[in-house]
User: Which sequence fits this backbone?
């Protein structure tokens, strides 16, 4: 695969994350039945980036999934590597900027960091949320080409600032490695055997072959199951995103993670142009530019 194709897939992953975030935020915390009712005039499906939702966002506006990722990516670029303390400081500055949304586990971890100065929380069974997984993309891009154990260690350095939990670690690491495989040209069937099924074999909480996961919560296993079902069961970026966000629940995060994977699979040209236009030039530039700089860092 050419360097240009890899870069397109890396840019696609970051733009896809933001698109999925903005698309899903409209229906966050809604049930599938509520979505069907709200979008009855559109055939019962949410398909366009219209804003609104419980956060009353503008069309194309992103939430914490995208803005935390960008904050983490800037810390990686400043340090030249994934550094726990730099990540914690970047997240703390992000929270001080009064983001539009912030998860409870993230807030709790950052308040603890302010109090102790320690960028690694103690292990907790209560930290199995999806907050570390949703922001893992810059780590995946910055460590492209490194051995799997080194990638996993880098993932944990940023994750443990707010989420120190085995399920969170497993999900975030698997997603990072999947992004890398996709950027390097792997196909969904290859990822199914190489990453998704082994994750479920080690941690049965992530088994995704059963009933359709609707109204997924912030529990990281719920998130991953919904994302895997949509990603492996679709054949285009748009189909994947529409499928996952119409499940409702924590739809900005399932949308962001599914968009990250689908963007890495189909490249930036696979993302519908109308969604990219609605996303807005500043966010597009931030995501695409950071993807380019992280890939350049990985190549040094």
Assistant:
């Amino acid at each position: 695969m050419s360097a240009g194709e890899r870069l397109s897939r890396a840019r696609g992953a970051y733009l896809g994350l933001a698109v999925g975030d903005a698309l899903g935020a409209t229906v966050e915390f809604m049930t599938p039945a509520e979505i069907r009712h709200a979008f009855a005039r559109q055939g019962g499906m949410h398909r366009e980036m219209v804003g609104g939702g419980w956060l009353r966002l503008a069309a194309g506006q992103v939430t914490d999934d995208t803005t935390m990722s960008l904050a983490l990516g800037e810390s990686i670029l400043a340090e030249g590597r994934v550094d726990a303390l730099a990540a914690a400081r970047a997240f703390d500055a992000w929270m001080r900027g009064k983001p539009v949304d912030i998860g409870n586990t993230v807030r709790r971890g950052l308040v603890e960091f302010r109090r102790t100065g320690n960028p690694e929380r103690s292990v907790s069974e209560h930290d199995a949320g999806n907050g570390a997984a949703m922001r893992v993309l810059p780590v995946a891009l910055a460590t492209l080409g490194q051995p799997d154990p080194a990638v996993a260690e880098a993932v944990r350095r940023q994750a443990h600032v707010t989420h120190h939990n085995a399920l969170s670690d497993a999900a975030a690491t698997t997603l990072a490695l999947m992004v890398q495989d996709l950027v390097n040209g792997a196909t969904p069937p290859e990822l199914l055997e190489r990453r998704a099924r082994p994750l479920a074999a080690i941690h049965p909480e992530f088994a995704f072959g059963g009933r359709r996961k609707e109204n997924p919560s912030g529990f990281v296993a719920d998130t991953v199951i919904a994302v895997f079902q949509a990603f492996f069961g679709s054949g285009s970026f748009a189909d994947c995103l529409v499928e996952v966000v119409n499940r409702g629940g924590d739809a900005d995060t399932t949308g962001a993670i599914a968009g990250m994977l689908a963007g890495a699979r189909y490249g930036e040209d696979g993302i519908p142009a109308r969604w990219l236009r609605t996303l807005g030039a500043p966010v597009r530039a931030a995501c695409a530019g950071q993807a380019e700089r992280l890939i350049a860092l990985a190549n040094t």
About this structure: The first helix runs from residue 3 to 25.
